[in-house]
Amino acid sequence: MLLIPMAWYILFQYGPMYGLQIAFRDFNPARGITGSEWVGFENFDRFFSSYYFGRLLWNTVSISIYSLLFAFPIPILLALLINEMKGERYKKLLQNVTYMPHFISVVVIVGMLQLFLNPQAGFVNFALKEVGIEPVAFLEKAEWFKTVFIGSNIWQNMGWQSIIYIAALAGVNPQLYEAAKIDGAGRWQRIRHVSLPGIFPIIVILLILDIGHFMNVGFEKILLMQNSLNKDASDVIQTFVYQNGILQGDFSYSAAIGLFNSVINFALLVLINRYARKKAETSLW
Amino acid sequence: MKTLQKGLSVSLAVALMSTALLACNTDSAEGPEPAPQSEGGSAGNGDGSAEGELLNKEGFPIVNEPISLKMFARKAPPNGPYEDMLMFKEYEKMTGIDIVWEDVPDEGFAERKNLLFASNELPDALYKAGITPLEAIRYGSSGMLIPLEGLLDSYAPNITALLEQYPEIRASITAPDGHIYALPAILTLGAARTNKHWMNMAWLDAVNLEAPETHEDVVEVLRAFRDGDPNGNGQQDEIPLSTWNLPDLINSMSGSFGLQTQMGYRINIEGDKVDLWIEDDRFKQLLEFLHQLYSEKLIDQELLTHTGADYVAKMGEGKLGYFFNQASDPFVNRKEDYAGIAPFVGPNGDRMVNGSPVARDFGTFAITSVNKYPEATMRWIDYFFSEEGSIFMRYGIEGETFDFQPDGKPEYTEAILTDPRGTGVTIGQFTPWPGGGSPQYVNVNNASAINPPEVQAAQEALDPYLPDKIYGAPMFDEQTAKEVNTLRQDIDAFVDESAAKFVTGALSFDKWGEYVGTLNKMNLEQLQKFYQDAYDKTK
């Protein structure tokens, strides 16, 4: 039985990795991968010395860090909130309302953002005007880009991501709550000392998985939200790879950048896993 | 829950790692061998190829027995499916050549084209594919695209005649290795090569002003458009100035600041010296002027974010005062309101407009090495460059989609011109030319659709201010082309981004020195040298 998944991995996951070598070659499709000239680290050199390198790295890393800081904890808080709610119907309603946005396609989400944040006609700016604040062209300001991007990400995904925590909370032994209650623990104390430790392993595992693609920020959404005015804050490694590799046909160069990106992801994954195994005694392997 | 299953997790990690990589699985050993380069002669002719008895050297049909060719084509928004196009269906009957179309929509076209080459899964020919000079050289020298000059001499009398009439075309499409890998569109009609300056005459009347002569007049007119409620609806909803995007706006106004677009780039040629003007003080002047307009809300505030479709809609709805567009088709319903005006005089007394060379679109057609009938393919495309064939290509079938006027020029039938879908979309159902970039021959006899009287008048307003000579984009050899491309990838992005910031005020003009410094760090001088060398060679 194990043969089928193994064959799948070899064929579709490891096999294509052989194409990785184009990052070290001057890839010419007519000559094929192995026939193209070997150029060593030339493509990497070009990237590291590019004018855009610093900005790309900073944007990629900072968007990831902000996501971890703000977007990661919110589903946990939401799950705790839902778990504490009394009425079944309200609980279901809140859960439904929060996870619905997950099913809207990225293109539509960005269209909605453009509509809502429009400085002339968007309702957000309309509301700002009502309270006497000058309208802001959110999508045309580099300083607003990350806020809008991560904020809308949270709105999109918090409900969906909270499901796994809710499931984990359901698995916490009810007797622990009973015992805590008898010992005189209040609601906050029960959350702190029973609920949170109960789902802690899940939190750590999801954190490790998140960090495993730390450098892969939501590429499609960024590309759709990008314009020449917010590029300062929205230019990330993945959009750069797309623009150079796919649009300009510079495959070797973008493969090198993609490889650089993946190596960082991989290193971070190994590091955080090792750290988690030592400190939290939870890890992927 | 302490540790997940080991095997799975390792593979998971590796799988994550590999996702960002482009997986290209072509191996030279498996891929088709590059076609032998035919040295100036016609490929596969006279050496016992199957084409000998099959092909007619003249007239129709082109082949005696039906053959089939696979063509990869770009499909612009107004185009219908290629296989249903009346013109191609008719042409199949005439030629005996059945085209199997792979028409890919604009959106995502660049990706598809690149992947096509990267995976070496080639069609027989590329049609309306926007092949860039770099692609022509890269894929030409590696044998994926075949050299066409021999085929042109033997099988393309119409194109050859045009190349002789306009010798500069041959120079602009010949690669440094002496081969022609792609065919351009040839537009001898001047109006097809300029962006007209359209002015809303109804609004001008309403605010009691004349068409602007100087850059100061422009500001005055635009201010009047903004404040004077020229459309008389009591609201400040007029957009004084707009265009497709900022590079388009810069290109349309740069002539008034003494800046030309030679060699397909932001280049002035003065006394045999190539000057890349993106760090020139005149460019700074232009950006300062645009910044003034933008900060006074005289430029469409959505200029940097709206799409081409939005812009077309704004033209059609008559929301614009002063704008730039090649033809009048987006606003035919209100063409009485608009007239083309001459470019304004800039602060240094310059009065110029930019235009494209006769070979306007590079790389509209190419034949690949897998094509078994290159001669027939060349004859197939050549017909469209004749007087008769070009009318057939752009107008379809006489009596069905067009009729000849008393003056001998074709005109679409009334049903097409009044179709509620709009002429562009209607014409795009039976011929591929709407949407641009077709391998076509556009002259004064076959262009009434893009050259109605108002466009002719608009072109006449521009004619006195066109540069004497317009140089096309040069063809670099592969190594140079790669270096130029590397330099331009960073520089162009930086210039466009900085221009947007200067114009909107996100970056103050105190930082101009820094901007120039960065450009020099990006090796602008080297880029300029490449263009200078290319210019010296064509001279």
Automatic annotation (TrEMBL), chain A:
It is found in: Cell membrane. This is Sugar ABC transporter permease. The keyword Metal-binding does not apply. Its main location: membrane. CDD domains: TM_PBP2. Keywords: Cell membrane, Membrane, Transmembrane, Transmembrane helix, Transport. GO terms for biological process: transmembrane transport. The chain crosses the membrane at residues 56-81, 93-117, 154-173, 194-215, 251-272. Belongs to the binding-protein-dependent transport system permease family. It comes from the Bacteria. Gene3D superfamilies: MetI-like (1.10.3720.10). It is a multi-pass membrane protein. Residues 57-272 form the ABC transmembrane type-1 domain. The keyword Nucleotidyltransferase does not apply.
From TrEMBL, chain B:
Residues 27-51 are annotated as: Disordered. InterPro entries: Bact_solute-bd_prot1, SBP. Keywords: Cell membrane, Lipoprotein, Membrane, Palmitate, Signal. Residues 1-23 form the signal peptide. It comes from the Bacteria. This is Extracellular solute-binding protein. It comes from Paenibacillus antri.
